[in-house]
Amino acid sequence: MNRINEEAENKPQLKLEFEIKEKDFNVAGEAASKVKKTLQQLGLTPEAVRNIAIVIYEAVMNVVIHATCGQLKVIIIPERVTVLTEDKGIGISNIELAMKEGYSTATHEIREMGFGAGMGLPNIKQCSHKLNIKSQVGVGTVLEAIIYLPSKDEKG
Amino acid sequence: MNLRDVQKILKAEVLCSEHLLEREVETGFGCDLMSEMLAFAGSHTLLITSLTNEHVIHTAEIMDAVGVVYVSGKQPAKEIINKANHNNIPLLSTPFLMFECCGLLFTSGLKGCKRDNS
Ligand SMILES: Nc1ncnc2c1ncn2[C@@H]1O[C@H](COP(=O)(O)OP(=O)(O)OP(=O)(O)O)[C@@H](O)[C@H]1O
Ligand SMILES: [Mg+2]
Predict the structure, then answer these.
(1) Which CATH class is domain B3-108?
(2) What's the pTM?
(3) Which of A84, B23, B28, B95 is the most buried (most CB within 10 A)?
(4) b/e per residue A120-138 (b: at least 16 CB within 10 A)
(5) Which residue segment(s) compose the domain that A66 sits in?
(6) pLDDT band at A6 (very low <50, low <70, confident <90, very high)
(7) Residue A91 region, left (φ>0) first, then alpha (ψ -120 to 50), else beta?
(8) Distance B72 CA to ligand 2 centre (A)
């Protein structure tokens, strides 16, 4: 078992990066769609593909809506996919509160576009195995979500 | 039921991907909030909405929705219809308002979505 973990460092790794520009409301959908197609080609299960696409969409949408600009990185290795967003923005003062279903600071305009249900972070939590959020008020937020992939024989 | 049945029940106009109307529909979900769709919608879900922007198409693609129904005769812009067509997402537009549209489908046997059935 230990040997497998040590080997992970040298295993093939695929890294996809996206720039999140200010007020670019389409980048979340485009990134999620692009990664989804890549993961399908790699033969991931439909469930894993869907969960990862949802995490990407919600995390990037949050950067566009609540922060100013940032970056998305998706790192794929055979045993897991890591979704990482880093943004410059107002930050989150109370992460526990932000995680609550229904909590949202979205404006009326944002709500009219179909966002602001306060379900984005809960969705990310639901769709990933590990979620880590670090934020500094007035500086920005880093969100890291990890989705473990079933090994080939588990897929059955 | 399949999308063809949905189209008949709702007297709907097909906006794109007519060749995919044989697709089976297992559940329906009516909502105008993207995160709610992503949280509650299950598999083989038909999205029912009054929002006509591109975010609905992105959301439908991410969650593998079988199609989208626009209520109260709404229709998205041409570019959005093209985008859906490109992604194989059939779009329908029904004259019925949200409540009647959902009610008609429900009484015809279409089930609603439950939390955590993804
Ligand atoms: N990257 C971010 N920067 C600053 N604030 C954020 C960020 N992400 C989330 N938040 C804060 O956390 C709240 C809850 O986020 P969450 O994604 O759960 O809901 P929402 O974005 O408001 O609505 P929804 O995601 O349902 O459209 C947001 O309203 C916002 O106040
Ligand atoms: Mg959000």
Answers:
(1) alpha beta
(2) 0.94
(3) B28
(4) bbbbbbbbbeebebebeee
(5) 3-155
(6) very low
(7) left
(8) 27
